[in-house]
């Protein structure tokens, strides 16, 4: 149940929403459903670089619904792919030239997400990139709750330590996390693969927290 202030804020945001097609993001989310997502970009500068690929998959309870996934190739408008980014995600200029326009990609992504909470590995970067693309369309960023897998993993590892060891360094690399949780590994730096692995890690860490 939303508080009076939350209801007022929601009404104000919806009233000022740039594109009414995106109102679904403020609906009541389906119970125990999430969307894991990942973006590939022209580089790592959230102020200048652009999205070139998005992968997303729906989580229902303790299941990753790989049959209900979204894969988008996006055509950058201004930035060229850096040599470093091509080495990482293996997408070339010729590949992304066949992608869709960013506004259409955002509409398809938001339709897929709806109001479901978001899950990801270092999700802050992906959200920042998506918000940059959304602001010209809506005037606001992603409103959904967000679950960071690396933070969940840090808390899990920290709970296993003695009191005087807590708070120290923990290896949060994605490959380390996936291997330590004994999860199946997919080829990294593919947007959909990374989204699926983040979804699996989220489900596993959530179950470990309840033990």
Features:
Nucleotidyltransferase, domain 5, 5 strands, five-stranded mixed beta sheet, 211 residues, single chain, alpha/beta
Overview of this structure, please?
Strands 3-2-1-4-5 form a 5-stranded mixed beta sheet, sandwiched between helices. Helices cover 42% and strands 17% of the residues. It has a single domain (18-209), classed as Ribonuclease H-like superfamily/Ribonuclease H (Nucleotidyltransferase, domain 5, 2-Layer Sandwich), CATH 3.30.420. Strand 2 and strand 3 (63-73) form a beta hairpin. The two termini are 29 Å apart. The model has no long low-confidence stretch (mean pLDDT 86). Helix 6 packs parallel to helix 8 (191-209). The protein is globular. It is an alpha/beta fold and 211 residues long.
Q: Beta-strand percentage? A: 15-25%
CATH class: Alpha Beta
Sum up the overall morphology in one term. globular
CATH architecture: 2-Layer Sandwich
Percent helix: 40-55%
Topology order in helix (H) and strand (E) letters: HEEEHHHEHEHHH
CATH topology (fold) name: Nucleotidyltransferase, domain 5
Task: Report the uncertain regions.
Answer: none
Radius of gyration: 18 Å
**What is the CA-CA span between the terminal residues?**
29 Å
Name the CATH superfamily assignment.
Ribonuclease H-like superfamily/Ribonuclease H
Largest sheet, strands/sense/barrel: 5 strands, mixed
Number of DSSP-assigned strands: 5
Question: What is the topology, as strand order, of the major beta sheet?
Answer: 3-2-1-4-5
What is the SS-derived class? alpha/beta
Number of helices: 8
Q: Kindly give the count of domains.
A: 1
Average per-residue pLDDT, rounded, comes to: 86
């Amino acid at each position: 149940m939303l508080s009076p202030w939350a209801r007022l804020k929601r009404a104000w945001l919806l009233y000022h929403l740039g594109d009414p097609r995106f109102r679904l993001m403020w609906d009541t989310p389906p119970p125990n459903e999430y969307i894991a997502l990942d973006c590939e970009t022209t580089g790592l500068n959230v102020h200048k670089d652009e999205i070139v690929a998005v992968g997303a998959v729906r989580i229902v309870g303790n299941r990753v619904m790989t049959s209900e996934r979204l894969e988008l190739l996006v055509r950058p408008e201004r930035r060229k792919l850096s040599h470093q980014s091509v080495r990482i995600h293996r997408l070339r200029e010729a590949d992304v030239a066949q992608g869709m326009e960013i506004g259409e990609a955002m509409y398809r992504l938001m339709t897929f997400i709806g109001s479901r909470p978001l899950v990801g590995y270092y999700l802050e970067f992906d959200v920042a990139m998506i918000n940059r693309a959304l602001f010209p369309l809506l005037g606001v960023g992603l409103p959904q709750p967000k679950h960071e897998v690396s933070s969940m993993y840090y808390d899990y590892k920290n709970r296993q330590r003695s009191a005087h060891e807590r708070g120290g360094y923990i290896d949060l690399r994605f490959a380390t996390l996936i291997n330590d949780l004994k999860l199946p590994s997919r080829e990294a730096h593919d947007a959909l693969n990374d989204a699926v692995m983040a979804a699996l890690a989220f489900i596993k860490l959530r179950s470990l927290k309840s033990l």
